[in-house]
Amino acid sequence: MLIHVVVAEKMGLLRSALRAALSSEEDIEVIADAAGIGELWPVLRRESPDVLVLELKPDAPEPAAAVVARVVAEAPGTAVLAMSHRWSPPLVEAALAAGARGLVSKDVALSELVRAVRTTAAGERVIDPSAAVAVLSPPANPLTRREREVLREAAEGVPLKEIARRLFLAHGTVRNHLSAVMHKTGARNRMEAVRLAQHEGWL
Q1: Per-domain boundaries in the chain
Q2: Single pTM value for the model
Q3: Superfamily of domain 3-136
């Protein structure tokens, strides 16, 4: 029996490659694809696939979980096989809690992706080693306690002077802590540092 698959991937080249590779298998047919979430819902309603191969952005666990949860609610007969180029503990936990049946890395070998499609279609769970490692061995938090405190205040949009007042720090010390945070996270600004730290589970 054919396994009917829909591929939802933003990058056109990768989407086409996934479609061609999966369709080359005798027991798998990619019946449709979607370039974005907006295109996904009418495709799911029209096609009712057995498996949805769904790209999840690594820096947005909450929106990703919301998409997975909606798929599970609106297409209960469709197994969600989520892909990401980087799995973090928050993303793994959010995807599984929302109902994803499988988690794979974007750089997984084709044979492993095919196996994951077949396994999830059969009702079983698949977790890529990179996703398992993200949960079992999360990266050490490089932020100090004080840096986390300052960043939490910054996440709420609190001005530097007010952060200094709340934490009983000098204004320059707050700036130094934020500079250290941006250096450690590789962020270009405070809000990006907040997003990256939350993604890694450091806040």
Answers
A1: 3-136, 145-199
A2: 0.69
A3: Response regulator (3.40.50.2300)
Give the pLDDT score at 164: 93
Distance CA 6, CA 80 (A): 10
CATH fold, domain 145-199, is Arc Repressor Mutant, subunit A (1.10.10)
Does the pLDDT at position 139 exceed 80?
A: no
Share of the chain above pLDDT 90, in %: 64
CB atoms within 10 A of CB 90: 22
